[in-house]
Amino acid sequence: MSRLDDIYTSTTSLAPSEDRVLYYPSGGSLKYLEVQLTNLQGGSFHSTATTASASFTDPVVGDHPVFVGIGQQNGDFLTVGLENLPDQIDFDAVAQNPGHVHFDSNEPAGRIAFYQGPLPSAGEGDATKFIVVSLPSSMHLDWDFGVDGNATFTASSEVEIRLLRQDGGSRIVSAFNFKNLSLSYGIKTGELSERECWPPLGEPCNEYVVVVEGSANFSASPGINGMLLVYDHGSTEAANGIPSPGSTYRPELSFLLKNLTSISASAGIRVCYLPLGLPPCLVGAPLPHFGFSVKADAANLDFWDNGGGPFDVLGDPDYVTNDPWNLYPLLYSESDRIDPFS
Questions:
Q1: How do residues 95-144 score in pLDDT, each as one tens digit?
Q2: In a domain? residue 159
Q3: Are residues 214 and 336 in the same domain?
Q4: Averaged pLDDT of the chain
Q5: Least C-beta-crowded within 10 Å: which of 78, 141, 275, 336?
Q6: CA distances for 320 relative to 2, 126, 239, 241, angstroms
Q7: pLDDT in tens, 251-269
């Protein structure tokens, strides 16, 4: 609940002496601009068609909060609250193959909160809030894509992202944390493989020639934890002692995930040349095969109906009785619902 409270109720504001960048346009031209950065010593930016690098130096004793406020032509605002602007920041990107995006600073930037929408609040209108609970001092994204390829993301500390996105008709609320991620994929042909081996010794086996096989693997270390909540917008009923506001956002789908460490998938065609396994394979026959696996401690998927239906078959809305349709695990007990962040 603390994460939901943060997503829904946290705000960003400009303190009287805080460093800031403020910009407000009017009719396509500048109406107001204010910039204050204490002890700024230097900065640089260089770019080509495929590379970009930048550095920034602004040493300040202790934390260095910065507020950014930008007005938009439609009357909305973009605000950014940065808990601590690091003394030294270096950025390097290469948009080639292989390529990378590297961010390094001398200290963590702490909490960063982005908001885009009307001020002082969005109500149920169009708005986006994006929070990074504590930005690491180092984050590296590297990739090398081709017929066989890979990509990695590494961070000096855990990253937790919290998101709210709504447009008046639907709302998405999410929170998840991660640190080191990797993705690899490839295609192989002409290799030998074994399947359907005899128990309990694990041999002999059916012997195959791989005609073609594609595979992809995703891994996370430590595992990913998170939640995804999806809402629609419509008329509501009173629930949990709270009067109905009439029309508002209603829960539709909820997904909870704890310690996702890997996802693997493969598909291909192989041909049997030695039928020694159990059961024996058919020599010379092309056999398609598919594989998919997910490793995680637990997951829950629930659907929330809005009640009613023909002859009121659905009864009260699920948010009134706190009794959604348990889709995964199928018909699991409410008492077994997981806490992804415990």
A1: 999 999 999 999 999 999 999 999 988 989 999 999 999 999 999 999 99
A2: no
A3: yes
A4: 93
A5: 336
A6: 22, 26, 5, 10
A7: 999 999 999 999 999 999 9
| Listed residues 109, 135, 161: the one ending a domain | 135
Question: Looking at the domain assignment, is residue 176 inside a domain?
Answer: yes
Domain membership flag for residue 143: no
Per-residue model confidence (pLDDT) at position 240: 79
Is 321 in the same domain as 175?
A: yes
If one counts the domains in the chain, the total is 2
Question: What's the pLDDT tens digit per position in 168-225?
Answer: 999 999 999 999 999 999 999 999 999 899 988 889 999 999 999 999 999 999 999 9
* 3 state SS for 49-67: CCEEEEEEECCCCCCCCEE
Q: Are residues 91 and 184 located together in one domain of the fold?
A: no
Give residue 121's domain range: 1-135
- Whether 201 and 289 share a structural domain: yes
The answer as to whether 158 is a domain residue is: no
How far apart are the two ends of the chain, measured CA to CA in Å? 12
Contact 75, 118 (CB under 8 A): yes
pTM score of the predicted model: 0.88
HEC string of 153-212?
EEECCCEEEEEEEECCCEEEEEEEEECEEEEEEEEECCCEEEECCCCCCCCCCEEEEEEE
Residues 126 and 254 in one domain: no
Q: Which of 300, 218, 220, 289 is nearest to 256 (CA)?
A: 300
Claim to verify: residue 195 and residue 316 sit in the same structural domain: yes
| Partners of 135 in beta bridges | 110
Residue whose tokens read 């910065």 = 66
